[in-house]
Each structure stands twice: as C-alpha cells, then as structure tokens.
Amino acid sequence: MLRHLTLCLLSVLLLTCGGSEADVSDTPAAVADSPRLNTETAIYHDATQPIDDRIADLIGRMTVEEKVAQITAVWADKHKMETEDYSFDPVKAREVIPFGIGHVTRPSERSGSGEPGRTGAEAVAYVNAIQRYLVEDTRLGIPALMHEESLHGLAARDATSWGQPISVAATFNRRLTRRLYSVAGRQAASRGAHVVLTPVVDVARDPRWGRVEETLGEDPYLAAQIGLQAVLGFQGDNDQWDEGEVFATLKHMAGHGEPEGGNNIGPAHISERTLREVFLFPFRYIVENSNVRNIMASYNEVNGVPSHANGWMLNDVLRGEWGYRGAVVSDYFAIRELNSRHAVASSLKEAAVRAIRSGIDIELPDREAYPTLVEAVNSGELSESILDTAVGRILRQKFERGLFENPYTDPEKVLSNTPEDDALVREAGTESMILLKNDGLLPLDGELTIGLVGPNADKVLLGGYSDQPQHFITVRKGLEAHVAATGGRLIYTEGARVTEPGSWYRDTVSAVAAEQDRKRITKAVADLADADVIILALGGNELTSREAWAEGHLGDRPSLELLGAQNDLIDALAELDKPMVGLVFGGRPLDIRNLLDKSEAVFQCFYLGQETGHSVADVLYGEANPSGKLPISLPRSAGHIPAFYNYKPTARRGYLFDNVNALYSFGYGLSYTTFEFSEPRLGVEQMSTTGNTTVSVEVTNTGTRSGYEVAQLYIRDDFSTVTRPVKELRGFEKVFLDPGQTKVVTFEIGFEQLNYLNEEMRYVVEPGTFRIMVGSSSRDEDLQSTVLTITGQAK
Fold first, then answer.
1. What is the pLDDT of residue 114?
2. Domain extent for 627
3. Left (φ > 0), alpha (ψ -120 to 50) or beta: where does 261 sit?
4. Domain count of the fold of the chain
5. Is residue 253 domain-resident?
6. How far is the C-alpha of 702 from the C-alpha of 170, rounded, in Å?
7. What residues in the chain have per-residue pLDDT under 50?
8. pLDDT value at position 133?
9. pLDDT score, position 34
10. What gap in Å lies between CA 768 and CA 581, rounded to an integer?
11. Helix crossing, 220-235 with 174-190: angle to 10°?
C-alpha cells in the first residue's frame, strides 16, 4: 500500500492511481500532511494541453478525500481560518481545508449577518491569501472558485446596486439589462470572484410568495429574454473567459415560483406539461442560447420529488435532452434538507449519495452532507466514476477561468461604484417605474409646494441580497434637490410605518403600534395643509416581502393588503382634497385599489436601486418619460390569485359580485405621451408547419412628448389538440419615438413562436389558424390582431 501511494505521489504523468478505496482511506492524514507535490511538468499544469486531458490527469492523481473537497464549499468555517480582524490564517486553514476546497462562499462578507462586508481592497487581499495557501500548501495546488451573490448588483461593500430583478424585467429592455449585469461582472471579477449566483429565472405565479422581487415576473418568455441578457452581461458572447467576466448561475430549477399556499419552498403541484412549457422554459432557452456555466437546483419538490434528488430533471432533461455541460450547484443547505425537511433520506450520507447521483455536482454553501461521500465511495455504496464526473465539472471551470495559470487578483484593479454607474442605475430606475394611472396631473411643473408623506418616503429601499452600496438616494433626498431647483418647497412628514425598523437579514419583524400611527397620521394631515400636491410613498419593505429561509425567518403573506395604517393614511389625506400621487414600493404586487380610487396618479415602483430618489424626481417632473411595463399582473386581492395573463380558456369564468380579471394585466404601463399601433401585417398569411414568416406593425407617437413604447407580440393557437393559453408573449421590442414619429417593428414567426407540447409530449407546430396579436399590453383592448393559417402535417 505504501509503495502504491508513493508511486502515485511521485508520478508526473497521467496515472490511474486508483488502487482500492480502502488503501486511500487508510492514509488521509499522511496525504494531507505530505509536502507540496512537485507537479510542474504534469499535464494538468500545461496550459497548451486540451482541458479534457488536464482534467483526466488531475483526477487521476487525486485521493478520494481530495476529490470530495472539490465538490464542497466553505462558508461558516471561513471564520475558523481567520484572525480576529477577519484576515486569512494559513496555519488555521491546514486544519479546516487540508485537502483543498471547491468553492469559497461569499469572500466579500465579514460576518455573514448583514453588516457591511470587506472593502474591495480587503476582499482581494483575502482571496489572494486563500489562493496562495491552496496553491503553495496543499498537495496538488488546486485553486478555489470564489462565488458571490449578485442579484441586483454585486452584494458587496461600495458596489453598484440597482433595482431588484422584478424592476429590471419591468424595463422590457434587453440592452439596458446587459449593461447593468456587465457592471456587476466587472466589479465581481475585480474583487476576486469567479462565479455569481445569478440570475433568478423562476417564473413567479403567486404574488403571496416573498421572493417575487428576485424574479423576472410571471412570463416564461420575458424571463428567458431578460435572463439571457444577464448571463451575457456576466459571461460575454463567447466561451472564452475575458477580464471582467464571471460565470453566471441560473436558478432555481424548477417550479419554485408557484409554491403551495405561496409559502417559500412549498410543493409545486404542476404537470410535466406545465413544468416544461412554463417553469423550465427560461432554463432551456438560456442553455440553448448561451454557455451558462452553472445551474442551481431549487428547494421545492415537484410532484413528490425534491429537485435536489430529481435525476430525471437534472440528468435526463437538463443534460440529456438539452445537452447542458456545465455544473449543477446545490442551493444553500438543500442537500441537508433531503433528510431534515423532505424526509426522502434517512441520513446525511443517504442525502449526499442521492443528490450526487441525481446530478448535484457541488454542495453549497458549507460542507455538511458531501464529506460523507468519502465513506460512501470507500464502502462501494457510490461509484467513484460518479464522483469523478462531478469533480470534473468543477475542475473544468477552474481550467477555463485560467486559475491554474494565475489564481490571483490584481489589487490595483479593484472596481467600486462610479458616476457612470450612478447614471446607468438612475436611467434604469426611470425605465422601471410603471405608470398605472394619470388623470392629467403629471408631469409636475412650476414652483409647487410638494407634500411628501409615507413610510417609504425617507427609507433606504434595496430589497434582499444587498450589501452596503456607496450611497442611497431616498425619495426625500431626490425630491428635495429637484424641488429646490424649481424654486418650489418640500414638506416631509412620515405619516405611517409599514413595520418597525429592522433588517432583511434579521429574523424579527415587529408590527407598528396602532396608536402611534394614529398620531403620525394626525400630524401628517396638519403638516400638509399648505401643500399643492401630495406624494405618498407607500407599499411594503424589506421585511414584509423576503425569502422565508426558516420557520423563524418568514417573508410570505396570506394577504396583499397594505400593512399597518397605510389605508387610513390615504383616507385621511384624501379629506384634504388635494391632488395625490401614489408611489408603491416593495417586492411584490399589493392590493392598492384604495390608493387608485383616491389618487390622480399612481406608479408601481417595486425597488429602483441606489438612485431611487433621483429616478423618481426625473419621472415626476417629466425629465424622463415613464416606460415601465408590468412584468407580473396586479391582482385585485389575494382572493383573485392566480392572476397571470396566460391562463387557459376555462380558467376565468367569473366570480359572484366581483370581477375575475386582474386589476392591471401583464405588460401594462402608461406614458406621458400616447402611441398608436397599426393593424399587424403578415409577410405571408398562409404557410406550412415548417415555414417562417414575419409580422410587422407601425408604432406612432401621437402625443407631444418623446418616449419609449414596448411593442408586444402575443400568439394564440385557435384550435389545438391540447388546450393552450388564451395568449402567450412571443416577442417584444422597446422603441424610442419623438412626437409624430413612426417606426416599423417586425417580429419573426416560425417554429420557436408557434410550437407547443402535443399529446405525445413532443414539441410540434400543428396546422390550423393562429391569432397574431401586437400592441402595448396583454389586455385585449390594447392589441391589434390578424390571422395566420398553417397548413400540412404537424411538425
């Protein structure tokens, strides 16, 4: 055994070096304590060799312990490798990660509990110290991948923070999306990160769910299009890694966005057809149109099978049908939950074996279950070839990223927020604001006395997965600057609170004492008596819509009502008989019927990013024309859920004494100007099932202001073998038009736009008639239509 081990350690050529599993497990301490192996001439160190050969060479040299280390990460245990000032200590690291490590989780963090993290310079020094230890002090010198959160900008100190993804989706702007995520990619790479756990392409179909803000809305096509641009922003257009790029992670696969009861990680009771056509659609589209390197499995179960144990979904569909060749990473602690929550594994080892067999390549964020794979391999319970496959997928990213040639980050090239980034976030914020109602009050003009009131008027509103950006402009700060420039006056009063102050990261959420809010409302009415216009900043906050990651840390709600005394505040201010503008912030749709009834203008804002106040002021005063469109329908109440627009023909018969339709439908959003759509014109009115054509429409700005409009293409298969939604988004284009200007927008129509899953679960285009609809929203009254006839046999 010793002779066998010695030969393995000294070899500089590709060795199989397997021996018996018992031989490897007998000597972990000896391997860990052995001096750095001289492998300078090994194939895996030769950058001129094919990556497949380098991977095979390296795996052939590794012990089982070293292999398992590559499919685990370190997070909480980072602090066991640190000094009191959070600096990395290689001596301590030898006890914590003696065999190396696959990922280091969130190196930009200090404590991991929401406090400001490391500066850019500190993060680079930290990751370089870790890499130096791994390269110089471990047996094979394998560097680590560093991963960070970047949901709406790198979640790190002084990084740029724009609006939550639900707001990015509201822009319907592909180019703007790519520019935003390119900023995050450059900043992340400059601080030593190689992987970001973004974008979220879950399709959100239940607004009670607290994670709606993290999604790109309710439509799979929109999520696919905007999600693809986020991936390209991070990774670039080609397979080569360039400076300023990081590997993206699609998440969460799949069915996460319509949990039972709106409760986070609740079971997804959906058919295979719905799973494929709705929830898997963005994943499939992005896999087929990019080289996305990572996909994260979801916490939930789909029809009784947890996603982290779903080999059909991760191996057969993702890798077999779609040809995906990247890594599948676990969600945080989700492998443990196969045992502790789902109860489909009786131990951590059983959970680990089932997860890796099902296609989960690496356990994040910490080493809990996967360390037991050493024993599972040595006992024969798990084939070492399955382990090798997972290890190879993680090593491939390290080779592709060039970490073996240069694992270090240049401390002179750290990027933080810049004025150019501010301008971009400000622009994105204006394009995210969705104007729901305007009775002629807006845009504001002249020397006005503005009354600003509401729980979100002077609050930092970032949403989840945020760190501490360089600055944040509240609505109050932004309007103060703008009103002063016009010669007007701003009066601010709080009015009411959503909750008592707290943190997205902390568990406790405290309700507001009703008597205290009554006093605030009374004061607000008195304070605003001289206002010309009242602006109400209402909605939710970071505590009332967030990821419910534990029973003690909740964020889902059974109601969409405005919390606290906000409706009482609206009623009291309405008695002043002054024009009111409502700004609705928060992570998901809310019941805002009272606000709409009593206000002249209302915006759905969600979260707008670090330039919130400037974006709001730009729009209210007409320096920017609102162009946001709803990425998710606004239901009238929780009792009207589901409210998504692409429902089946039998789904919305009606309610007794109430309207069954959404309050505002997907794709809706007004402007300060008006637009007119011509009747759509088909390239050909009849074609075969394998044919292609186009549909064109003229969009004219018929108003007096320049602005953006989003031309939206919807398609309906009139009669089909399997029931189809009443309409489905199949294209959109955002165009800028000056007053009186007309532009022709043309959409392609072919297999991609017309196909669906038939009775045999094959994607086909069936003969028949298809209604082709183009307009400004998904509402029937906002669409012009024509008919395309498809002839021949289904293809």
1. 58
2. 419-640
3. left
4. 2
5. no
6. 23
7. 1-30
8. 98
9. 54
10. 48
11. 40
